[in-house]
Amino acid sequence: MATSTAVVFMEFIFVRNIYRNYIEFQWESKLQVKSMQAVGKVNVTCLFISAFVKKVSSRQVDCETALTNLWVVLVKHLCLFLVLTAAVADLTQSYQCVVRLPCTCSGTAIDCSSKRITSLSVLIGHPNSTYRMRLDGNPGLVITDDTFANITLEYLDLNHNTGLSMSDHALRSQRDSLKELHLSNCRLREVPQALRDLNALEKLYMWSNHIDNWDETLMLKLSGTLNVLDVSYTGLTSWPRWLSHMSNLVYLNLYENHIDVIPHDAFYSAASAMNYLNIESCGISDMTTAIRSLQNLTTLVVGGKTLSDSSFFYNWLPTRGSKLVTLSINNSNITKIPYGINDSPSLKILTITGSRLRHVEEEAMPKSLMALSIVQASLTHIHGGVCNPALKFLRLAANRIQSIEKHDLQDCRALTYLNLNHNHIDYISPTAFDGLKELKTLRLENNGMIHIPTAINNMTSLRSLYLDGNPVECTCQTLWFLSWRQRNSGVFISGRCTLLGIDLADFHSHCAAIIVG
């Protein structure tokens, strides 16, 4: 009798565990209607088992009866399993995709991108669910007042939909839910009137459209909530007044417009909010004083062929209390490091791409700088003004550097990455890298080096060496390299021995075979 009671008790525990697991499942799915039906059946079964155990414990049935009842319990378990399976099927079915093929769904993410869709049937979303929807890459797409009437969206991507047609109230049902909207590269000539209905929009991307008509009333309506705005490549020909009233803007991209002049009070509303600004290739010939008011700016991108050395006055950057961390100057006509950069105590990353920069003066860089990139310029030597004790990343690719001398990098002792690709380097002093004890990556591709630089001998932290595109002549008399390879077997080496036609990584074994022979 005790054995039968124990078996029945174990069966009871089994049912209880099924009950607990099912409750956890239905809690995670947040769908309780179907689960409560199954839970009711579980409770009935548990009450039956409880009564049965009580009966056996009080010895009101004999062993034969107990075994018979045990089979009854097992049958009920099977029934319970079928009930739970049906409930799970109902739960899964209730999460079916809210749109038809060829679209796909993953949870609340709906993907209809590049499906050649020109129209959508009315979407019906689940109550209390908010969706993210991609409809990009569907030229000629038509969105009516009813398309989104029965679904709640927080994210909508309509990029690359040339010929997009959107009714004036297509987004009315998303009034308080839609937070991010992408309307880039749709060949729009005006801002869609459907945006008037949006009260919660935070991010708006409209790059690569040619907007002839910027509805000032509409844009001012959005200014109360908008904090990210990308209107690059939109054909702006002057500074829009509505932009000066956007007090919550954190991110503003104006790349490739034709603004020419930015007023001194352009950012007075967003002075304390903005931390990213891109005004590259806007036709500006003199840097605006408006930038000085952006004390919380962390990233600034400027550039364009209209910028020269005279475009930068001494205090064009935020100074006192500045939080500027990253500065990029791209595709300009500057020949020297602009004034004011060395007075930016928070600056950590400086990138200068596509310039006529010939040299870097001493004290031109702030002591805080940790990453410096001067690419596609006219540097012929690595000058003393390049290095500082904090610098960890240095990229001087695509210049005209011909050699690396003994003292060129002596003040770059903290470097972990050095990139000198696409120069004219044919000589490296044997002691040029002696101070670079922290350097892990050295890139010297596409230069004019005939010999493997002996300067790598004293680099104790090197992990990657790139010499591709150099006319390196490998000879078996280069014993120092064989010895170095043995001591540094964990270093990744990329490059080829041009005369032997083998990879540098195989140079060791090749020479070993000749020496033994």
Briefly characterize the structure:
The chain has 517 residues and is of the alpha/beta class. The protein has helices at residues 2-29, 32-57, 63-93, 216-222, 479-487, 507-516; strands spanning 104-106, 109-111, 131-134, 142-143, 153-157, 165-166, 180-182, 203-205, 228-230, 251-253, 276-278, 299-303, 326-330, 349-353, 371-375, 393-395, 403-404, 417-419, 427-428, 441-443, 464-466, 492-494, 496-497, 502-503.
Can you walk me through this structure?
The chain is α/β, with parallel strands linked by helices and 517 residues long. Among the domains are: 2-93; 98-235, Ribonuclease Inhibitor (Leucine-rich repeat, LRR (right-handed beta-alpha superhelix), Alpha-Beta Horseshoe), CATH 3.80.10. The protein has helices at 2-29, 32-57, 63-93, 216-222, 479-487, 507-516, and strands at residues 104-106, 109-111, 131-134, 142-143, 153-157, 165-166, 180-182, 203-205, 228-230, 251-253, 276-278, 299-303, 326-330, 349-353, 371-375, 393-395, 403-404, 417-419, 427-428, 441-443, 464-466, 492-494, 496-497, 502-503. The strands form four sheets. The chain has an 18-stranded mixed beta sheet, with no helix packed on it. A hairpin with a 2-residue loop joins β1 (104-106) and β2. The radius of gyration is 35 Å and the shape is globular. 31% of the residues are buried.
